[in-house]
Amino acid sequence: MRILGQDPSGDGVRVQIETDEDIWHLYNVVEVGDLVTASTTRREEKAADKLRAERAEKKRMTLGVRIEKMEFSEDDLRLKLLGTIETGPQDIGQHHTLILETGDSLLITKRHWRETQLERLKRAVDDSKKPRILFVSLDQDEATVAVLRQFGLKEIVTVRSGRSGKQYAEKPQADGYHDEILSKMVPLVEPNMPVVLLGPGFEKESLADDLKRARPDLFSKLHVYHTGQCGMAGVNELIKTGMGAEVLRESSVGAEMEAVERLMTEIARNGLGTYGTQQVRDAALSGAVETLLVLDSKVREQDLDNVVRAVESQKGNVIVVSGQHDGGRELASLGGMGAILRYRMD
After folding, report:
1. Does one domain contain both 217 and 242?
2. How many CA atoms lie within 13 A of 37 on its CB side?
3. Is the pLDDT score of 36 beyond 60?
4. d(Cα 303, Cα 91) in Å, to the nearest integer?
5. Alpha-carbon gap, residue 226 to 198, rounded angstroms
6. 49 domain residue, yes or no
7. How many domains in the chain?
8. One domain, residues 14 and 93
9. Rounded to two decimals, what is the model's pTM?
10. 26 part of a folded domain
């Protein structure tokens, strides 16, 4: 994402969507009641005195829409903003839907900007510079290909080997299994994208050799890890236990899941962990919070600026956790808010 400028009044911020993941960040910034101005298409007004109505062609125009409803699609990464036209060349007061995609620019005008919302925009600018991570989690029977994006893990496809019996034990690479995995990986690989192979047994090492031999231009550097499970369970195991820390260090999701796992451990042993809105608020205002974890949906729905300011003023760390991965779902089960403490509180 790129921040193009801010109105002198401070009420409006203009941004450019540079990656599809920027749309997720916007979903966490735009809220009902905002005025969003963007280029869009709408049918031209026609003269009302004609006996037979004509179906007008759609024309591109800039409209300001007061938002009444939002719809985020994780599958195609599009954000729909539904509301009433407030500024523009025509149809003032009528309903319109803005569909935001990569490449679009928009002006977001709020009656009041929360600090957490401005921080989210800055985070989007920083995160857009970080590469995604491609995972292949496999054993000799099946392989799951997944991509780690800025807000969560996305399972892409599962490839099954179709093997059975002991005749495959010596030359598993000869059955086309690895070729099929390679065909699914190639369209997903981006420049400087880390590629991680993981799972139990020795299948991952065999795949690594085949990938380097088949496409050294793409897979000259692979990260290989042993996990007790394959599939998405294996990917989550890798992230939660911090085994791939050197790869995941730059990933927002990796940091979020590791922090949630630490919080859950502290709570389970009745240690330096607490959860619940009031308990966390009290700890923050007392200066006891080392790391504050807040679910992104909770930040969207509530003004938590005073809690965030209290933690940051005491040199604490604030992590907004996406609800699109296992760590976010665990935090949601705790009410969407938790904290790792500096010291125990009564």
Report:
1. yes
2. 14
3. yes
4. 34
5. 6
6. no
7. 3
8. yes
9. 0.73
10. yes
Residues 6+ apart with CB under 8 A from 207: 136, 138, 143, 178, 181, 197
In the chain, % helix, strand, coil (3-state, to 5) comes to: 35, 30, 35
178 and 78, same structural domain?
A: no
CA distance 311 to 17: 31
Contact partners, residue 253, CB within 8 Å, separation at least 6: 148, 149, 150, 151, 152, 153, 239, 322, 325, 327
- Looking at the chain, which runs of residues are DSSP E strands? 2-6, 12-16, 35-43, 58-73, 78-87, 95-100, 105-109, 133-138, 142-148, 153-160, 195-199, 223-226, 273-275, 289-295, 317-321, 337-341
Q: pLDDT digit string (tens) for 242-291? A: 777 777 766 778 788 889 999 999 999 999 999 999 999 999 999 999 99
Q: What is the CATH number of the domain that holds 101?
A: 2.30.30.870
C-alpha span between 173 and 204 (Å, rounded): 11
Find tokens 């900007």 and name the residue. 113
48-86 pLDDT tens trace: 545 455 667 889 999 999 999 999 877 777 899 999 999
When pLDDT is cut at 50, 70 and 90, the band that residue 165 belongs to is low
168-178 residue pLDDT tens: 454 444 479 99
Tally of CB atoms within 10 A around 286: 14
Percent of the chain with pLDDT over 70: 92
Question: Where do we find the tokens 């195991």?
Answer: 237
How many whole angstroms separate alpha carbon 173 and alpha carbon 147?
Answer: 24
Claim to verify: residue 281 and residue 310 sit in the same structural domain = yes
**Does residue 108 sit in the same domain as residue 16?**
yes
Range of the domain at 287: 259-341
Alpha-carbon span 292 to 305, nearest angstrom? 12
Cα gap 312→298, rounded to integer Å? 18
Question: Residue 203's Cα: distance from chain center in Å?
Answer: 30
